[in-house]
Amino acid sequence: MNVHNVVDVITGFRGVSDRFPVAVDVPIAPFGRGKEMHGSKRYAAHPASAAAIAVVLRDPAPVRS
Amino acid sequence: MTPSTAGRGTGSEARPTLVFLHGTAGPKKKSKWLAALSSRLEDEGLSGWRPEEVVAVDYRQPLQAKRRRHARPPSRSVELTPARRRVVKARRKQLQRALRGHRFRGGAAVRRLPASTFRGPAIALRRVRKDFRRTAARYLRVRGQVISHVLDRLPDGDLIIIGYSLGSVVAVDLLPHLREGQRVRLLLTWGSPLGVEGCGRPPRAGSHRSRRTASTPG
Description:
Chain A is about 35% helix and about 5% strand. Chain A is built from three helices and one strand, in the order H-E-H-H. By secondary structure, chain B is an alpha/beta fold. In chain B, about 35% of the residues lie in helices and about 15% in strands. Chain B has a four-stranded parallel sheet with strand order 2-1-5-6, covered by helices on one side. The interface between A and B is large, with 58 and 84 residues.
């Protein structure tokens, strides 16, 4: 799998890049656990949603000057 | 709704405020999706947000307005400094590591939004499936009202924005208009019409791309 295609960082979004470091999209998909759920709950139950949020919560500032 | 600046503390640093933008069906009980997300966060060894800490903006009223009343608020330009580039690069690596293993049948579970998304939802939305295009057209007519409505209800400080379906379009449209003290630490889109590969270029009939386009929720 091409990791670069999995999640990317928007650097060319002029004007807001400073406050907008990353965008992650969880598309509609037949998941394993949580597939019986519907709507937003289904996406919330996707482990990738929590994993992406956990990255930000664990390390609010990835580079310290 | 009163904007809350209270993040949930994790030691000395306040947590980013979780902001949720609903889809076309309107806001659901946030306790439902929040419980599912909190359960997953607990799997990661972190505590979730309490329902009262989440800012779930209900923008149905401006969305249902019959006519356009005002233009979008002024956008704010921010320079991408070398220091900020380093932060972005480090964050990308962290997310790549954390999300590497997440897949679903037929592809990756998490992917980037197409670059066309960030040239403006008006461009990206031209390529979404036909029935969603009506919703998109309705949104584009009243986007000034919707953005102003949501901006008025967003707190200052660090934000994690989750946009579900149409909410992801609103979230992306909102970004250039954020105030000085508002910083988006993560934009998470769920089932976004902007995330389908058909966005930004015309889907071919019967192609893999057009099938993906057809799976966009409302």
